[in-house]
Design brief:
Strand order of the largest sheet: 2-10-9-4-5-6
Radius of gyration: 13 Å
Number of helices: 0
Structural class: mainly beta
Number of strands: 10
Strand content: over 45%
Order of helices and strands: EEEEEEEEEE
Distance between the termini: 40 Å
Shape: globular
Largest sheet: 6 strands, mixed
Amino acid sequence: QVQLVESGGGVAQPGGSLRLSCAASGFTFSIWAMSWTRQAPGKGLEWVSGISINGKVTQYADSVKDRFTISRDNAKNTLYLQMNNLKPEDTGLYYCTKSFDALGLRGQGTQVTVSS
């Protein structure tokens, strides 16, 4: 049974940082490209960032480029998203996604709220 469990969300001030983690199980994590997607209140799903199976290829949405960093540890079956210089528009539910694009299986999500 595939499981994706996100953690690390919370409340941050503008300009602050958070690090999200996603613990994957039930499939061979190391052969799947992964991504993070998010959904802001009242808005649709937005792709945030994707990473290749070995971590050498990463891509970012223009809205988070140069602020967010995606990474993975295949030995730990874990996906990460380091979020720096957070903005109020980064508020939303963040999902770990089992694909490079936004179309794969998602976890339950972790809430990120950026507010002063």
